[in-house]
Design a protein that fits this description.
The protein is α+β, with helices and mostly antiparallel strands. The protein has helices spanning about 5, 20-35, 40-45, 50-55, 75-90, 90-105, 105-110, 115-125, 240-270, 285-320, 325-350, 370-380, 385-395, and strands at about 130-135, 140-145, 150-155, 165-175, 180-185, 190-195, 210-220, 225, 230.
């Protein structure tokens, strides 16, 4: 991001948003800044320090934090819309913001009341940006009990956003047990080394490379959800998976929406009708109109479903202590359904836009390919076939998914 772009927006002289619509408008303003040099930043794939600072300066990082601590006091329904809006301009930053919201919510998911209050107050006042080193496909970090404190050791292949974060969520297993322990630690310390090895075709600005954890110390008092070294379980502890899967859904839809908007501008301003067509303008070609209508209708349908499932999620968040295993399972099925549809629609939109923009639109300078590359890269996070199976099992056998790292 260039200094000239940064200088275009001064958040200090703007009134802080107070409603959902105002927060979405703030996200739209952030997206407008990101869109200016999104193609170049995708190509350069530099560490997004300026982009994260933009999220902080705009106040978006504190959207979910309680108002009494200076946060936005907004529900998850607003957060998902904000993620979608930011992702329209830059899928990588939409992902970073979404992951931040999930990890910032980690204390709420598994912490004690005292831990929740302490983390949320500090995070809001200091505008922490959260990262996470919790990739379940790798071996768990090893946790050693030293009496008054714990130490974490190990390696994770992916640690999205942690290099640009203030704090990182760690998770591992206590030696000699099957006990998992979450903790929030400062990201900038000698015991955390980021390997700068994220070089994938899409989501290139997410800093999702590997990390090595060596003797990172955590006091037992900061072990999330533990009292006298004993974890206090709740069904709500397992809401991290449906919450993050809805994050995925919304930045997929945001990327697809950004692709459609960018392509439609290109079609209006640059595309030409076919040489042998009776139409002078590309915007009058029947097949162009049909394609845009088809893709837009599909995208709108999934956005509506995503908003509905987000509302269902909010009911659970608002009644965290009362949620049952059955309620949680049925919600996960709904999340699986919208995840499957969002994946299919985002891939279709981002690939088919070239049918209505033409050969010249494939120029690297246009950057239209970044939308497909971003969606294709992240939709491989977990196989969508398993999401459809969750829905099928529920419909045919009335069985809900067992909580896992992916369901």
């Amino acid at each position: 991001m260039t200094k000239s772009v940064d200088a275009q927006v001064s958040w200090d002289d703007k009134q802080a948003p107070s409603t959902a619509e105002q927060w979405v408008q703030r996200a739209s303003e952030v997206a407008a800044v990101l869109a200016v040099d999104a193609v170049r930043r995708d190509r350069d794939a530099n560490t997004p320090y300026a982009e994260v600072q933009l999220l902080k300066d705009s106040g978006l990082v504190t959207l979910l934090a309680p108002a009494e601590h200076g946060g936005g006091g907004q529900p998850w329904t607003t957060a998902y819309r904000v993620i979608r809006e930011v992702a329209k301009a830059d899928g990588s930053i939409g992902q970073l913001l979404g992951y931040h919201y999930l990890w910032a919510w980690a204390a709420r998911l598994v912490g004690t009341p005292e831990q929740i209050a302490a983390v949320e107050e500090a995070a809001a006042k200091q505008r922490w940006f959260f990262g996470g080193a919790v990739n379940p496909r790798d071996q768990d970090l090893t946790i050693t009990d030293h009496g008054s404190h714990l130490s974490y050791n190990g390696r994770k292949s992916f640690s999205t956003g942690s290099k640009v974060s203030d704090v990182t969520v760690l998770e591992g297993v206590l030696e000699g047990t099957e006990t998992h322990v979450f903790a929030i630690v400062p990201s900038r310390q000698d015991g955390i080394v980021f390997n700068d090895d994220w070089d994938n075709i899409g989501q290139r600005v997410t800093e999702s490379g590997s990390v090595v954890i060596t003797d990172v110390r955590v006091d037992w008092a900061s072990a999330a959800g533990f009292v006298d070294k004993v974890f206090q379980p709740r069904v709500y502890n397992t809401l991290n998976v449906p919450a993050i899967q809805l994050v995925f859904v919304n930045f997929y839809l945001g990327i697809a929406g950004g692709a459609l908007a960018t392509a439609s501008t290109y079609t209006r301003d640059k595309a030409r009708s076919w040489l042998y067509s009776p139409y002078e303008r590309a915007v009058d070609e029947p097949h162009v109109l049909d394609t845009y209508g088809d893709l837009t209708a599909k995208l709108w349908a999934v956005e509506a479903l995503a908003d509905k499932v987000a509302e269902e999620a909010q009911v659970i968040h608002d009644n965290a202590e009362a949620v049952t295993e059955r309620q949680r399972g049925e919600h996960e099925v709904r999340v699986a359904a919208v995840k499957a549809r969002a994946t299919d629609v985002a891939l279709e939109v981002t690939s088919r836009i070239f049918e209505v923009t033409g050969a010249r639109s494939t120029a690297s300078s246009e950057g239209l390919d970044r939308f497909w590359r971003n969606v294709r890269t992240h939709t491989l996070h977990d196989p969508v076939a398993y999401k459809r199976q969750e829905v099928g099992v529920y419909v045919l056998r009335d069985e809900i998914p067992e909580p896992t790292w992916y369901s």
